């Protein structure tokens, strides 16, 4: 228990039990430090504010971007029973090029209201007077878009593409026959699916009806 004397003459005494308890006791923390969680080194490497796979980081599709900029001259009107489209001008006055192709591209959308606007817009535009003469020159651009829609894995997207194909066939008639070979492959793949088989068979019958014996 005697103090230890060093060569410099300084006397160092061993710590008592009270002094050891004071040294080992933690320092009092402020309320902020008690509530605020301590950041981990991994937070700097993986910041939660950056999510490359998040919804907000995905760029909008071409159709959604055009729709947001007012490039689609019709809007969805919510009704008490069913929805409808409201055109900013008469559909007969709207140029088919490029609107019909743009609406066809929108058939691959999976979010509302793009799904409704593209489907109903494509249908109503083909019902205007003179639609046949306006749609036939666009077939080389419409068919690849419809082909991509029919190849989509989503059943609803495929159904919209199939309906659009039948609607187009009813308008252009035999003019679509030369392009059918590009579309039948995707239809034959879906024939294995029982959910789509009946609808595809009905569509093929209508394509034969509108295209004539050559189809």
UniProtKB/TrEMBL annotation:
* Compositional bias per record (Polar residues), positions renumbered to this chain: 1-10
Q: Which residues form the signal peptide?
A: none
- One Pfam annotation reads ParcG
Q: Could you tell me which residues belong to the region Disordered? A: 1-52
| InterPro entries reported in the protein's UniProt record | ARM-like, ARM-type_fold, Parkin_co-regulated_protein
Write down what this protein is called. Answer: PACRG-like
Say which species the protein is native to.
Mesitornis unicolor
